[in-house]
Each structure stands twice: as structure tokens, then as C-alpha cells.
Amino acid sequence: MNSVKGGLVILNEMLETLTPSEKKLAEYIIAHPKESIRLTASTLGEKSQTSGAAVIRLCKSLGFNGFQELKIRVAGDLQGDPVIGYRDIEPNEEYKEIIAKMTSNTIQTIQETIDIMNEDSLKAAVEALIQAKSIVFIGFGASYISAIDAEQKFLRVNKDVQSFSDVHIAATAIANKGPEDVIVGISFSGQTKGVAKLLELAKQKGSTTISMTKYGQSIVSDHADIQLHTSAAKEATFRSGATSSRIAQLHLIDILFMCLVSQEYDEMIEYIDATREAVAFLKE
After folding, report:
1. What does DSSP assign to residue 209?
2. Residue 82 — very low, low, confident or very high, per pLDDT cuts 50/70/90?
């Protein structure tokens, strides 16, 4: 994250959740990004046929500190290479075209996830996981793939960690958790009621809660002490196994894990070496 980016990504991802005036303003910025970053709030309001007040409301809805942050993020986006956009496959398409499209989609999903990442939230999540007496990862459907991947990784560094895809078993585990424990809810949409209820239960028990959802407020992130976001990744029509969203979640989990290992490097490397030796022993 050499420069602050993600303004255009966030505008596009939040578009359908905005009020009519905010949406009109967002669409204007998306269509005229170079012009928009050179304008004052009041002038941008006039150009977009909204108002300066609408600009301020839009920035608040996007989760920005103000119009200056929005302009800095959009300016950062304009410094990068032009975005091709997510591409869907076609009937009976050549394999080389499918390979190119899927690779392009994956790269864009990862880049957009990094562009919208809040480093302060990432640091808070890593610190909570380092201090945790136990960790529970929750995810349903395709998100459970990410939850079990996280369990496998954190198990390697001697963390007391579990992953659940059954709401009742997860509730049973959370029932005996407390302030020293961390519960991570994974839901791409952020609207998975089971994950939201489990995070709500965890907060009642005093546990630290972390959400991993697409950008924006949701019923899942509303119950999280720490909110982490992935790109909203426009899924292809066939969206086999929630392809793009799963890649974004797995990448974010890798970042969390590597940041944790880096913070406690000497101790963590000993654990990783021990697990590697144990697996090698089984192959003898």
C-alpha cells in the first residue's frame, strides 16, 4: 500500500446502497474522476446537480473522514493501470481465453481488496489474534472454505483454534467463550443471519468479534468490534464456488496470518518448524 487508493472501487461497490442524491454524485465522480478531484465540494455539487452538503454526506456514507480523503483515494486510483473489469466466460470458449479471464479477475479482486484495506483495522485484528486465548472462525457455504483454511493456518502456530459451518455447534462453542477469546465471522455479503447472530452471541459473552465482509455496513459487521473488508468482486454468471469472493477472503486470511507471524517471528517460526517436522515424520 505505497499510495492510498480504492476511491473508485468503493464508490462502485457502495453505489446501490446510497441515497438518490449520493448515488447521482457518486456516478458523476465515477464518470469524471480526473475532473472531480480538482473541484471543491460545492463546485462538485453544482457540476453533479446535487449540492456541497451531498458531497459531505456521501463521504460519510463511504466511511471516509472527509472529501479530501475521497479525492486522495480517487487520485491514487488514477495513478495505476487502467482497470479492464471483471469478465465472464462464454459458451464453448477457448481454454486460453478462460485462463486469461479467470487470471485477470483474480488479480483484480486481490488488488481491489488491498486498495480498500484499512491498515489500522488490520493491526487491531492481528493484535487481537495474538492475544487470544482461543479463536473461532465461522463461515457458511463457500465462506466455510475460508474459515477452515484459517483454522489450518493458525493451528500451525500453536493457536487454540476451531472453525464451524454449523450454527448450532458454533453457538455451543461460543457459549463458553469470554473476554480472552476472539470470534471471526466470515460472510462475503455481510447479510448471513447465522453469522450475525453468532457474533451477537459472542459480544454478549464479552469476546472480541471480527467480521470479514465486502465493503460497507452490514448485519454481520454491525456486530463486529473490528471490521475487515474484501473487494465486492463482481462474480461471473456461473460463479463456480463463489470464485472471486473466495479468493479475496483467502488472500485476506493469508495477510492476517503473515502479519501475526511477523510480529511474533522467533516463536512462530519454531511452531511452524515443529509442524513441518511432524508431517515429515509421518512420511518416513
Report:
1. E
2. low
